[in-house]
Design a protein that fits this description.
- This protein is mostly helical and 392 residues long.
- Among the domains are: 93 residues, Herpes Virus-1 (2-Layer Sandwich), CATH 3.30.40.10; 81 residues.
- Helix content is 48%, strand content 11%.
- It is built from 9 helices and 12 strands.
- The strands form 5 sheets. Strands 6-5-7 form a 3-stranded antiparallel sheet.
- Helix 7 runs antiparallel to helix 8.
- It starts with 6 loop residues before the first helix and ends in an 8-residue tail after the last strand.
- The structure holds zinc ion (6 copies).
- The site of one zinc ion (ZN) has 5 residues, from loops.
Length: 392
């Protein structure tokens, strides 16, 4: 992120309550800081969570807090309020004067005091001996300037004076009056200037942020390691699936090849017997036709012939009829023939298919490194599921 935070970026980060997604404001949706979580939550959301009770569970992390003073006792998130003021100035919206009770529309800010000034208070501020040397920025001048150049008036809510001190004992920023009333040095309160406290505390928060950064790094390393593991599991699933599909596609091909061979055996082993039987049928039919037509011819001839002609017909035909009696059709050596399919080895094949292949898990787990294995070498215990092949 650049040093000059853009308006759009601030808007996303800081101007909405994470619970109700409504915009914060200085009057009703006041951003309150929980002791447990960094994000601020609007006052109405917190009030509805507490239900008026003296305890409140954090809507973000569910931690319970005792709040005898109610939700209003939680500190306002002044950075958000400052951001809201800044955005109002950038958009030309009205801000009330913080210098007069009438809360007139402010037109400028005193950079030294942090106050918003209406036109009347502005002239007064310029005339006053104490404040006439102060740097005044009109809202028009402030438009387009980065948020970092914008200051907000930090006033003590009890004494209406600027907070300029920090009490280490109470972890609270206080005004000069507070240092002589509730946060007196003599009564054991350790009070220093805001600048000094900021210097001291910035170091320790930076230390924590540094550790948070390390933790973020470790967590993202774990994240990518876990992602890698998921990828590995999925990769092993893909390889196993591909192997299974390959083997079974191959088995399917072999089965189809075997089917083709057996079907062609049906053709091959039937062909010769079919051929000789069909030839026998042909020769039988041929002889039958010859015998039938000759006898029919003889019958019709003899019907038409007188005794002399009949004698002549009988004489000439007898020899050929006798030779016809001696003729026989082609014979076949079998009574009946055919092929049949024998289910040789099929039962065995089916039983084998039912238990063909197995899937087992293989796990690599880290373990204590035995002596003699260099640190650089990957060392894992490999757990294999037993691979006794299933039997039928
Ligand atoms: Zn809210
Ligand atoms: Zn919390
Ligand atoms: Zn005023
Ligand atoms: Zn001033
Ligand atoms: Zn005070
Ligand atoms: Zn104190």
């Amino acid at each position: 992120m650049s040093d000059l935070v853009s308006v759009a970026a601030i808007k996303d980060l800081l101007t909405e309550c994470p619970i109700c997604i409504e915009h914060f404001d200085d009057a009703t949706r006041i951003p309150r800081r929980m002791p447990c979580c960094v994000q601020s939550i609007c006052q109405p959301c917190l009030e509805s969570y507490s239900g008026g009770a003296a305890t409140l569970s954090c809507p973000m992390c569910r931690r319970r807090h005792n709040l005898p003073g109610g939700v209003k006792s939680l500190p306002k998130e002044t950075v958000i309020l400052k951001t809201l003021d800044y955005l109002k100035i950038q958009k030309g919206l009205h801000l009330p004067c913080t210098d007069c009770p009438d809360k007139e529309i402010a037109v400028a800010q005193c950079d030294n005091c942090g106050t918003f000034l209406c036109s009347i208070c502005l002239s007064a501020h310029k005339r006053n001996t104490v404040s006439k040397t102060h740097t005044i920025n009109t809202f028009d001048e402030m438009k387009g300037r980065p948020l970092q150049s914008f200051r907000r008036l930090h006033q003590c809510s009890q004494h209406q004076q600027p907070v300029q001190f920090y009490c280490y004992t109470c972890d609270k920023v206080v005004c000069v009056s507070c240092t002589v009333v509730d946060h007196k040095e003599g009564k054991g309160h350790n009070v220093v200037s805001v600048n000094e406290a900021h210097q001291g505390k910035a170091k320790s928060i930076n230390d924590v942020l540094g550790k948070i950064e390390e933790k973020t790094k470790r967590l993202s390393e774990t994240e990518s390691a876990l992602q890698k593991k998921i990828e590995n599991i999925k990769l092993s699933m893909k390889v196993a699936r591909d192997d299974i599909n390959k083997i079974f596609d191959n088995l399917k091909d072999r089965l189809n090849q075997r089917r083709t061979i057996l079907l062609s055996d049906v053709e091959g082993k039937s062909a010769e017997n079919l051929k000789v039987t069909e030839e026998a049928l042909d020769s039988t039919r041929l002889l039958l036709t010859k015998v039938k037509s000759s006898s029919e011819y003889m019958r019709q001839m003899r019907n038409k012939a007188d005794k002399v002609e009949d004698l002549q017909v009988m004489g000439s035909s007898k020899a050929s009829l006798n030779s016809m009696l001696k003729e026989s059709p082609q014979e076949i050596p079998f009574d009946r023939t055919g092929v049949s399919f024998v289910q040789a080895n099929v039962q065995h094949l089916q039983n084998t298919i039912n238990v063909a292949g197995m899937v087992r898990s293989v796990t690599f787990s880290p373990t204590e490194r035995p002596n003699g294995i260099p640190d650089t070498a990957v060392h894992n215990v490999i757990t294999l599921e037993p691979a006794e092949f299933p039997t039928d």
